[in-house]
Each structure stands twice: as C-alpha cells, then as structure tokens.
Write a structure and sequence with these properties.
The radius of gyration is 16 Å and the shape is globular. About 40% of the residues lie in helices and about 20% in strands. By secondary structure, the chain is of the alpha/beta class. β3, α4 and β4 form a beta-alpha-beta unit.
Length: about 200
C-alpha cells in the first residue's frame, strides 16, 4: 500500500522586481514532483492574487485587507510541510517573507520547514539561520539539511536547472528528511492535539 503524497508548499519569499527566487522555486518544485512523494503548491508571495502589500504585523487592518491576507491562509493550512525559498538581504531574509510568516500562526504549528537559499558569497545561509529561530518560536520543526546557491545567477543554466549535480543530491537529502518529518508529525497531530 503506497503512502499518500506529502502536500508541500514551496514559498517564494522575495517580491523584488527582477528576483531570482521563481527560478530556484520552479527547479525545487520539479525535483519534489519527480520524486513521486510530494504534491507541490508553489506559493509565490508576488502572485497578483496574493496580498503583496500585507499591512505591518500588529496593525489593525481593515476587513478588506484581512480578506486579502486570507487568500494565503488556506494554502498554508492545507500543507503538511513547507520549503521556504529565500534570498539574503542585508544578512537576513526579506521583509515580505517575515510579514507572511507573522500573519499566520497555526498554519506552521507542529509542521516541518525546509530551506533553499540563494545569494552572493554566503548563499543565503545567514537568512536561513535567522529563519530557524523564527520558526522555532512558531512551534515548527526546521530540517537540518538545506540547499544553498552561492552566486546563484551563475549556478543555473538557460533551462532553469543548476549546472552542478550536487544541488540535486542536496535537494534529495533535504526532501527525504522533509517527507519523513511531515509524515511523522501528521500522524502525531492526528493521534493527539499538539500542546503548544
């Protein structure tokens, strides 16, 4: 009897014009889809029908703004696991990503989160380390294995795939761990409510 696929939301965290995130996310979504163990939903925070201009967290938004934020919520809630695709901006991650994280709470709780980062010399790894602390506060489980692209613009061919085969090996290791945690935590949540 085969297991149901893990529903994974691949979140594109950057909304800047000219961003490279969609290339990285499309590649990762393809790798996850080819594995056969994942059902992938790419949640691009810059999609026209998603609330690009979320209000600052903690403000009292108008009902129309709450409705806009709510367009992201069901997609996150439906996910068994997440892969956050993030660049590094000023030694950390984009404000758009932080705002999307902060406007949701229960959607992350007791679910696994993996990271694919990209950037210059650091490959976005400092952004990932900051995100680990944020997701820990939200009771999510972060995956140890990551995929990182140093000088990302030079690491992908014209077809949108990495030129280094090691990226695929790293992605497989990360996705294997993500799948294990997703299935384990889904079973745990079904057996008993998470106490956090």
């Amino acid at each position: 009897m085969s297991e149901a696929p893990v529903r994974v939301a691949v979140i594109v965290g950057s909304v800047r014009e000219g961003r490279f995130g969609p290339v990285v996310a499309a590649w990762l979504a393809g790798v996850a889809g080819e594995s056969g163990g994942f059902e992938v939903d790419v949640v691009d925070l810059a999609e026209p029908d998603l609330p690009l201009a979320m209000p600052a967290f903690g403000s009292a938004p108008a009902p129309s703004v709450v409705a806009e934020i709510g367009k992201v919520t069901p997609r996150l809630a439906a996910a068994d696991a997440f892969v956050v695709v993030t660049p590094e901006y000023n030694h950390s991650y984009p404000a758009s990503l932080k705002n999307a994280i902060d406007w949701h709470r229960d959607e992350w709780r007791a679910k696994p989160v993996a990271f694919v980062s990209y950037g210059g010399i650091s490959g976005g790894l400092r952004a990932v380390e900051h995100l680990r602390a944020v997701f820990a506060e939200l009771h999510a489980v972060t995956i140890r294995e990551t995929v990182s692209f140093h000088g990302a613009h030079t690491r992908f061919g014209p077809d949108g795939t990495p030129t280094d085969e090691a990226a695929g090996v790293a992605a497989k290791a990360m996705l294997d761990q993500l799948g294990w945690w997703a299935r384990s935590l889904t079973q745990a949540r079904a057996a008993r409510p998470y106490p956090g």
